[in-house]
Amino acid sequence: MEILVYGIGGVGGYFGGKLANAGLNVSMIARGEHLKQIQKHGLEVESINGNFKVKLKVATSEISEVPKPDLIILGIKSWQIPAVAKELKSIIGENTMILPLQNGADNVEKLLKILPGKNVLAGLCFVVSFIEKPAKIKHTAFDPKITFGEIDNSQSGRILELKKIFDKAGIDNSIPENIQLEVWKKFMFICTVSGIGGLTRVSIDKIRESDYLFGMMKKSAKEIIEVGKAKGVPLKDTHLEMVFEIINSQPKGNTASTQRDIMNGKPSELYNFNGYIVKEGKKYGIETPVNRYIYECLKPMEEEARKTKE
To answer: Ketopantoate reductase N-terminal domain: from which residue to which, for each copy (predicted)?
Structure first.
């Protein structure tokens, strides 16, 4: 199987590295000094589960230089999907699988606007990892996992084969009964902590300590549940309780990646998180005052960050 990992940040670098370390044919798309050092020295992964270093089949910034892939894993940010999907059109084949792993509730929707539905899978991942320096990924917490499936939740042959690939690479993985529900459960957590984290600029444990901010997080999460239900996702109050069990279990000092991007003046997933809930709330006639407050407060900073990026 030819595997392309597009984006070698914390997600793509860790999972792509695991696949390459298992002897699979892995190519990667990256940019800048990170790419140069990977081309020279290989990709290093420092992990709480064991360190390793791999040489990739191809590491490049040019999509035309990679072999025709059977599987494409997207390790980019959710706001980058439309541009990357257009680029991928030139290399996907009849049976190419495209697996999005980034945070966000509408990644599949974005892909389906540009690419054939038969090529698109749905997925998410759990991993705390980041680029420590060029050519080095550092995994610092939790046992990484990929959850994935067909958009229609069918147990297809290719999904079962993909599970074997992840098993071979030693990647914990699962095929749920309802992949959309799993995507939204994670989205509810990450959206709930990210915007408020970006506003307060403190770690999750510090936000928890404030009764006002903790209540604000609960209101935000309830708005997300109502929007998800309106879109046909079978979210329940038990899922809200589960999300806050995760929030309450976060160790001291933990922050979300979107919060870190906001604080560092980088383009973030604000539009795809709180902004998405505001947009979909309007579409379905659902009031989302907390998510709108967070979104409108952070929007000017996001606009500035994107101007700088351009």
So the answer is: 3-152
